[in-house]
Design goal:
Largest sheet: 7 strands, mixed
Helix content: 10-25%
Shape: elongated
Distance between the termini: 33 Å
Number of helices: 9
Order of helices and strands: EHEEEEHEEEEHEEEEEHHEHEEEHHEEEH
Strand content: 25-35%
Strand order of the largest sheet: 8-7-16-17-18-15-19
Radius of gyration: 23 Å
Number of strands: 21
Length: about 400
């Protein structure tokens, strides 16, 4: 993916920096572009005559090499050329509000986003009184209250959002330095950002930080940000993700292939460090995958062990997975991987979301899914709030 070229060169137009190229950052840029284009079109009554030079200059600074954060990991079998694939971040998302439903509709029409009508079970691992795990039907996800996935990978939607941006420049592998590290950065109602090596990244009228709250706190520390005390209000917990793969369906343990009570796609696990098990190769548009299973550990367990050695964690989760899925030497997975998410789940008191944090004097905004309920729809909602906050100052 290459950087987009900015079309605007008018120095009087607002320059907006977005720190973080995850979904919150991408959705914020998308809604900002749309809001300005719509405003111009209304003024001129003809969208075809939109003056592209009137669109603000938006720059996203992303510390990694890619965007979206709907993480996908895969490996290729050298003999067959087929892939194992694991959505080791968010497995799916919901769209409960009409505005978000309307927003995702174009990607549903192209099948880049698809509903996942999964068969869901409750799985209780074997204990001293049972030889195998107890599996009971729990639910079937349907299109009425749909769970959506991005195909062919969970990263595909984030990349599509980035590709659709027309007036946003994305700077990859760029880490923005903490604001207080360069106290001269606030001049003439603009904020000059620097990278960690002290190189200037430019001056901006608005700076929007979409990093997890732990990272946002580091960026804004001692900067004079008026809402700093509120950054730590939402509590974030870790999550370990275990990824397993088998060479062929015939090698799967019976727990993953049994037709009794029915073929299942998602298991909620009881009495275990494990939380949920997802069968990747049974998802829509995943038929060509080698057998791949993603397992999320419980957030409370992960938080307790967040700084433990990753190899030790992998072994512990692998033992828990074997206990739940009941494999032997002939049906053991041939592929094993583990990932630690330090900021994975948001705990919201009394189900009340914090909302974005705005410093109107500096024109700084701290945002992120953790300002909502920690899910993908929250990314969209806080992006809406950010556009509204900027629009109030026009």
């Amino acid at each position: 993916m290459t950087d987009h070229t900015l079309l605007s060169t008018d120095e009087s137009l607002p320059k907006i920096a977005i720190i973080g190229g995850g979904l919150t950052g991408l959705l914020t840029a998308t809604l900002l572009e749309r809001a300005f284009i719509q405003s111009i079109a209304i003024k001129r009554t003809d969208i075809q005559s939109t003056d592209q030079s009137s669109i603000p200059q938006i720059t996203i600074f992303e510390k990694s090499r890619s965007v979206g954060r709907l993480a996908t990991r895969y490996r290729t079998d050298s003999q067959t050329g087929k892939n194992w694939q694991w959505a080791f971040g968010a497995q799916f998302f919901t769209a409960k509000t009409p505005s978000f439903q309307q927003f995702i509709a174009p990607w549903l029409e192209t099948d880049l986003l698809q509903p996942w009508c999964a068969e869901v079970v409750a799985l209780t691992p074997a204990n001293g009184n049972t030889e195998s795990s107890d599996i009971q039907h729990k639910d079937q996800w349907n299109t009425t209250q749909a769970r959506y996935i991005s195909t062919p990978k969970m990263t595909s939607w984030g990349r599509a959002l980035a590709d659709d941006l027309q007036h946003t420049n994305i700077k990859f592998k760029t880490r923005v330095a903490p604001f207080a590290q360069y106290p001269q950065n606030q001049t003439d109602d603009k904020t000059e950002l620097f990278d960690e090596s002290g190189n200037s990244l430019g001056c901006f009228d608005w700076v929007i930080c979409t990093a997890p709250n732990g990272q946002a706190l580091e960026l804004m520390a001692e900067s004079g940000f008026t809402e700093s005390a509120n950054i730590t209000k939402p509590k974030m917990q870790a999550c370990y993700t275990l990824m397993l793969g088998w060479g062929e369906v015939q090698s799967l343990p019976a727990t993953l292939t049994s037709q009794t009570p029915s073929r299942w796609d998602v298991a909620y696990v009881n009495n275990s460090p494990l939380d949920r098990i997802f069968i990747e190769h049974q998802k829509p548009a995943h038929n060509d995958l080698l057998p791949s299973v993603t397992i999320h550990a419980r957030n409370d367990w992960s938080e307790i062990h967040v700084d433990d050695d990753i190899d030790t964690i992998t072994e512990q989760l692998l033992q828990a997975a074997q206990h739940a899925l009941h494999w032997d030497d002939d049906t053991a997975p041939s592929q094993v991987d583990c990932h630690r998410w330090r900021y994975a789940a948001t705990t919201v008191d009394n189900n009340e979301a914090l909302g974005i944090l705005v410093d109107p004097q500096h024109q700084w905004i701290v945002s992120g899914d953790w300002c909502g309920h920690g899910n993908i729809e929250s990314c969209y909602q806080v992006a809406q709030q950010t556009v509204e906050a900027i629009w109030k100052t026009k």
